[in-house]
Amino acid sequence: MKLSNATLSALPSSIKVPGYDRSRLTPGIVHIGLGNFHRAHQAWYLHRLMEMGLAQDWAIIGAGVRAFDEAQRLKLKAQDYLTTLIELDPSGKSAEVTGSMIDYVPIVEGNGPLIEQMADPAIRIVALTVTEGGYYIDPATKGFAVDHPDIVHDAANPETPRTAFGAIVAALKLRRDRGVGPFTGLCCDNLQGNGHILHQTVVSLARLSDPALAAWIDEHCTFPNSMVDCIVPATGPKELALVQALGIDDAAPVTHENFRQWVIEDNFCAGRPDWDRAGATFSDQVHDFEVMKIRILNGGHQVISDVGEVLGVETISGCMEHPKIRALFRKVELEEIVPHVKPVPGYTPGDYVKLIDRRFSNTAIVDTTRRVAFDGSSRHPGFIVPSIRDGLKAGTPVEGLALVSAAWARYCLGVREDGSVVEPNDPFWADLTEVAVAAKVNPRAWLEMRTLYGDLADQPRFADAFAKWLSLIHARGMEAAIDAYLAA
Fold it and tell me: Are the C-beta atoms of 339 and 394 separated by less than 8 Å?
């Protein structure tokens, strides 16, 4: 059955469908970056509120700024912006159709339609999931990447911007000039202090072309920090076959685990939905929640994914079934990451490691090591390096984190131990591969990428361990290095 408003009542009775009248929904949110994660996470929370008869004036309008976003827009438009969510768990699966999204802005060069949509007074929140590396952060200073070609373009052409942030600035200018008022910018990407980062990007870009506008945004707009969590694999042939087997013709289904978490700073300048009634948490402890999640879950993904890729293990659950990789995960987490993580309401760090162990081990979730290993040049500095620095400062072990870093260097050679080729898997793959080749002879060459590692090349306790592990990996293989670490 082709998914659409007209066919909802004809879908199999086992499939939950929206119980609210979608024709009565009105928009309140523009969300830029309509990937699987957003539809399984933020859109789901809003859908839940709508099922309670709430938030009917907060429906989502999707958006993108790149040419490839148009294909996703057309897929979703053809099915009235409905999405089939399939929850996968070893005990079984369930499915529901969500309807909190009601439109998707056409993708046009210069982003005129997006700017006008965000300038609409009905829009009170503009949210984003554009990946960790999408915020134009200078890797050396962690400040705004003012010299990036996209930013140079948007500063010179503020009315026809290339980036999502340029479009946001242009829309806020219209709102100010029309007396509409500000909106909240809500980052939903895995970045520590993600609201602060979004604020930095938007205000810094505005300042390049219109300092007075930048001051207005700084004074009137809000950018709450948030922490998001749900494992959501990419959609491929298996997922498409799975939704077909359920009796639904959905061109863009989403599979996900049976766990979600959303912790949000309650700082919204133009109102918000009551997401807490659907299970989200409003808290002034977002930083502690995000440190726990970023260090233990996202860091844990990096602990196992590069190793798994080098050894030819295709999925995250497969990594957890591999006795040596799982032992590596547990030892690094408990001895080198957990000591630097505070407890939060509901979780001790040790309890959270057990939860992540179970979630990573979910064999029903086909989450590939390749997906998790993508963009290591953003993820290692964001998820692994902070634990290294804490360990060096506190005098706690960093040997395992050095091994994890060495595994990434080995992965970036672009060849697995079985001889198969790793297709480029990072925005800077060619540069990383060049340095990885040099590091076979001189391991410290890898740490000399100071935009990623800062001064860690000058920290003997870490640098010596890294050199030892990378040399051992090249001489005897990944499993031998893991064995040596576990035996220490």
Answer: yes
